[in-house]
Design a protein that fits this description.
Blueprint: H1 7-10, E1 20-23, E2 37-43, H2 48-66, E3 81-83, E4 90-91, H3 106-111, H4 114-120
Parallel strand pairs: 2-3, 2-4
Antiparallel strand pairs: 1-2
Length: 135
């Protein structure tokens, strides 16, 4: 897949900036399902546009993993099945600096103190999250 146009965004992101997840086991006596399912723990700084983009990339990765170009599936563990919940837990994680304004949640940005917003060095343009092939 041609994702090179998103390289500028990807280079600004580290694992600490992303959402996390927790195993979808409700009670202490319940057993984990297989394949394992994980509920997404939201990162407060992420806009819905950004979340939709990275979750689409996750789905594309799983689709590619299930349809390898070789004769068999890749070795190792299967990719995690990550599920978004209506009332997901939200964590105040580290936000990356220097992203486009529509990458950040607008309400989260408004709650920051002016010096915190300035330190983020937000690019005053909207990022194009398109995943359609380039021409």
């Amino acid at each position: 897949r041609k994702l090179e146009r998103h390289a500028a965004l990807f280079t600004k992101l580290k694992p600490v900036h992303m959402s996390s997840d927790e195993a979808a086991v409700e009670g202490a006596n319940e057993r984990q399902q297989h394949p394992r399912i994980f509920y997404i723990v939201e990162a407060a700084w992420q806009s819905m546009e950004f979340k939709t983009f990275v979750r689409t990339l996750d789905a594309m990765y799983i689709e590619d993993w299930k349809s390898p170009t070789a004769d068999r599936l890749p070795g190792g563990n299967t990719p995690r099945v990550r599920v978004a919940r209506q009332n997901a837990r939200i964590e105040e994680t580290v936000a990356p600096k220097g992203l486009w304004r529509n990458c950040y949640d607008a309400t989260w940005l408004e709650k920051l103190k002016p010096h915190q917003r300035k330190r983020l060095n937000v690019i005053d343009k909207d990022y194009v999250f398109s995943l359609t092939p380039e021409e």
